[in-house]
Structure formats: structure tokens, C-alpha cells
Amino acid sequence: MQAVHSRHTTCIKDTKDDRITFIVLSAGVGNRMRSYGPKCLFKTSDETILDRQLSIINSNFANSETILVVGFESHKVIKKISENIRVVENQLYQTTNSSESLRLAINNSIGDRIFFIHGDLIFNKETLKNLDFSRSFIIVDSKNQIQDDEVGVTIVNNRATFFSYGLDTKWCQMAYIRGKELSILKSLYNKTGKDKLYTFELLNMIIEKKGVLMTVEPKDMYIKEIDSFKDLP
């Protein structure tokens, strides 16, 4: 089930970022910090994690569509949103996973290129600069900014070959999907049993079906995942 809250959809013009749909996945509970509310509303200095993400997206890609997927205490998140974005609610967030939130967002997007970002990430403007949008890619970290217990990726010739825990190079929980890879992703959703998967499991399935995900580590990137209050800057 889903609920779509249509506030405003950004007008997309014919620019280099034409029809990129940015999807922020913020439906999860965050068990370690559940009693404090949605993680995306935690403050980093003078702004929330969500405000910081949306500000960076809008400053770099003013003409693109942005979709926010909410779930846990969605009313609190919706109340705080001041940006011109589309809100999609995953009402089954307690029994599904990030793959279902991504499916709902894709079904409500108007573009044919998507860039999804997990909602508990803090990153700087350089993370989204000078990216090549002609091919599908993921953003990676080889400088130990992402914690050791997070999902890593094996890389051959600048292509992702397998996502798993315990690998040195980490996936930054950001992925740009278009063309063949987006078609594969949509076909995966035509089969049952995908609503409880993590997004990295979907990416593995795209690779298994001969999709190509390039790997990019942006220069001067700063990125951090927020799992607990000690992770907040």
C-alpha cells in the first residue's frame, strides 16, 4: 500500500540533468534510535540530515524531480518539509524493506533515470559534482569514511561485480540507474518476494542479469552514515 502526497513536482527542463529523479529513502525505523523519531530529522549543526540532503540536491540539480519516501512517523517528516518535492509514503515500512520504498518511488516518478540515496547519509556538495550521467553507476568509498560493518563492493575495470558485507571498498548507498539497468530493475519488481530485500541485493540482481554499474569515487567527497548519535558531526 502507498499514500502519495503531491505537494509540487519540480518543472524539468532540457538540461544535462534532464529527467533525473532523485529518490531519498527515509521510511525505515532505525531501531537503535527509534525513540528519538525519524533519523532524517536529526540535527547536524543548524539543519536536519534531510534538509542538508535536499539542499545539496537542489543546488546541483535545480531542474530535476525529487521524491522522498517516508514511513516511520511519516507525519513528523511531512510536517517539516519545506522543499518542492514529491512525498510517497510506504505504509508497510514495518514489514518491508528499502527495496519496497524504492519500488514505490519509481512507480511515482516521471523520469527514466533515477538516482537513489539512503536517508541517513551526511555528504557534501562535492559528492554529487562532476558525475557522468551517460551510464549507470554507484558511488564508492575506499578511504574508510563508511563504517567497516557496512556493505562493500568488489570492482573489476571500474565496474561493480558483487555487493556484500566484509569487503574493503564500501558502497556509499547511492546509485544512479538508467537505460538497460533501470529496465532490469523494473522487471525484478514484476516478480513477488522482492519487498523485503535491501537495495544492495537488487543491485546484485541487476549485475547477475548482465547490467553494468560503473563505480565512481568523487574527488573531495565527504560522506558519513548516521547509525547513532555519536555519528552526528
Question: What distinguishing features does this structure have?
Answer:
233 residues, alpha/beta, Spore Coat Polysaccharide Biosynthesis Protein SpsA, Chain A, eight-stranded mixed sheet, two-stranded antiparallel sheet, globular
Task: Give the SSE layout.
Elements lengths: L1 E5 L13 E7 L16 E2 L2 E2 H12 L4 E6 L3 H7 L5 E5 L7 H10 L5 E6 L2 E3 L13 E5 L9 E6 L2 E7 L4 E9 H10 L10 H10 L5 E3 L6 E3 L8
Parallel strand pairs: 2-5, 2-7, 5-6, 9-13
Antiparallel strand pairs: 1-6, 3-4, 7-12, 8-14, 9-12, 10-11
Helix pairs in contact: 4-5
Task: Kindly describe this structure.
The chain is 21% helix and 30% strand. With 233 residues, the protein is α/β, with parallel strands linked by helices. The protein has one domain: Spore Coat Polysaccharide Biosynthesis Protein SpsA, Chain A (Alpha-Beta Complex). The chain has an 8-stranded mixed β-sheet with strand order 1-6-5-2-7-12-9-13, sandwiched between helices. β10 (151-156) and β11 form a beta hairpin. α4 packs across α5. The longest helix is centred in the N-terminal third of the chain and has 12 residues, at 49-60. Residues 4-17 have low confidence and may be disordered.
Helix content: 10-25%
Task: Decide which structural class fits the backbone.
Answer: alpha/beta
Question: Spans of 5+ residues with little confidence (pLDDT < 50)?
Answer: 4-17
User: Ends: how far apart?
Assistant: 36 Å
Query: What topology, given as strand order, has the largest sheet?
Result: 1-6-5-2-7-12-9-13
